[in-house]
Amino acid sequence: MKSLSVYQDNAVTERFPHHSTLAIRLSGLDMHEKARNLLSQCDLGIEVGDPRLGRAIDVWRSVYQTMGSKPKYMSSVEALMVRYRASGKFMQKLPLIDLYNLFSLAHGVPMAGYDVRALSGNLRLVLFDRLLRVMPFTPLGEPKVRQHLRSGEVAYVDSEKVICRYWNWRDCDEAKLVADTSDALIVFDLVDDLAVATSELASSLISTFSAWFGDSVVAAGWSRNAAGCVDLGALGP
Fold it and tell me: Are 224 and 8 contacting, i.e. CB atoms less than 8 angstroms apart?
């Protein structure tokens, strides 16, 4: 199994000390069938007026303001809520994406999924600096478009490209989950300011996904800084 670690740079920790990153690695094509079955069985109880969701959106709005982003840039949780409120649905064609979107909205936790095959090296959460100015970003669904990070922006990157801009605003096209993804990375953005302590929430999320996906979960962990990177290869075959 391809080695993989996930961590956030200390510059991010210094500016956003209440944030931490949780990651879960899933393996095997049967993860898609498990997600499909879960979608048919689970009632995640989504309420767009849920105070917990409102708190999450307020916290992430503050984070985005600190990054200096324009109002059009919304956290993934707020974007999902807007879409869900407008149409009552946001289903994609891939059950795994549908599942984590539903879970994200129900719990107010930004989440994303990536195909590990498309990642070069480790996944890092970084704060913009001059060295990252030329790193390319290809927006999801727009494979011919090239963008670059802006000053103040926090982003996920690998060794070659930007994976997600403005923390959890928009993912890249290259690492999107597809029907034949057999090695998936699910990333959760956690913030202390919410009602439940981060350590408790992280443990709960890992337990939930472990119960859902069983032996498809090959590694999981969470970290607040570069010194505590999440090694997601140690438990693989």
Answer: yes
